[in-house]
Amino acid sequence: MQFAIEMTSVFKTYPDFSLDNLHLRLPHGQVMGLVGANGAGKSTTLRLLMGVIKADSGVVEVLGNKLPQGQVAAKQNIGYASEDIRLYKSETLAWHMNFIKNIYPSWDDAYAKDLARKFDIKTEQKIKGFSHGQRVKACLLLILARRPQLVILDEPTTGLDPVARHEVLSELADILRDENRSVLFSSHNTQDVEQLSDTITFLHKGKLLDSQDKEIYLDRWRRVVCTGHIDWGNAPESVTDIKHNGSLHELTIDQFNDTVINQLSNMGLTVASIDRMTLEQIFLANVFSKKRNEVRS
Fold first, then answer.
1. Residue 92's Cα: distance from chain center in Å?
2. What is the pLDDT along the chain (297 residues), one digit of tens a residue?
3. Reading across the β-sheet that carries 239-245, which strands appear in turn?
4. Which one of 94, 115, 250, 261 is CB 3.0 to 4.6 Å from 243, fit for a cystine?
């Protein structure tokens, strides 16, 4: 079993939205960030993987189990958390821990205590006394202490204040680095994804824009500022966007390398600066490039 998640030619159609021919693979032991604006298809993708909904067509396979037939077997080894998960406010975290322990034989008491210490949450405190950030940490403890093979997180930092968000991300960064655990988490916050992920997957309006190793993404995109004359008619293929500011031209370049610089030089352009791009800038460049291509076609 090479992949924790494998989706092949998956379609799911609603009256106002469709997931269109999705191909997705998550290798074992890797952390994948699923990035997209609201309505991109992130939650639909996660619901398909959890067996909550069924694909209209295509193949969905989780931990070697084809869904929906293998849904029960797959869920035994999946830890899932989202902002919609509710805990019993009148009960303590310890009560919840014991409840989950009685359902899942894989529960690890020592690991649960270690997570409570790392998350700085009191297990004997009732949930109603927890802040939002503490409730998020409690949910993460409850799924991680089961030692699942696959962890699926739906917008894990939504609604957190900056301090709580930083704490959760810092703790997750350490905890998720386990070669025996695969992680898929969705977010519209590219900073979260950039901090935690090995692989980045971009969704836009139900379509897969791209899916690749994070470091390759960050290495291949550049913002190049130059002087001279350039427009879409003579721009190299790797240029995905051109912004003009007086005599300066800002080029967004995919597949950046020395050949591109030589092309610009041969066109009579003088390069003033070359800057790396953030994941957010890369995502937006992907989206706007797709929109331009749709208009042209």
1. 31
2. 589 999 999 999 999 999 999 999 999 999 999 998 888 999 999 999 999 999 999 999 999 999 999 999 999 999 998 877 789 999 999 999 999 999 999 999 999 999 999 889 999 999 999 998 899 999 999 999 999 999 999 988 888 888 888 888 887 887 777 767 899 999 888 888 888 899 999 999 999 988 999 999 899 999 999 999 887 778 888 999 999 888 899 999 999 999 999 999 998 999 999 999 999 899 888 888 776 666 555
3. 239-245, 248-253, 222-227, 270-276
4. 250
Give Dmax (Cα) for the chain: 71
Q: Going from the N-terminus, what domains does the chain have, and what CATH number goes with each?
A: 3-212 (3.40.50.300), 218-296 (3.30.70)
Cβ 180 vs Cβ 29: under 8 Å: yes
Query: 260 and 238 in contact (C-beta within 8 Å)?
Result: yes
The model's pTM: 0.87
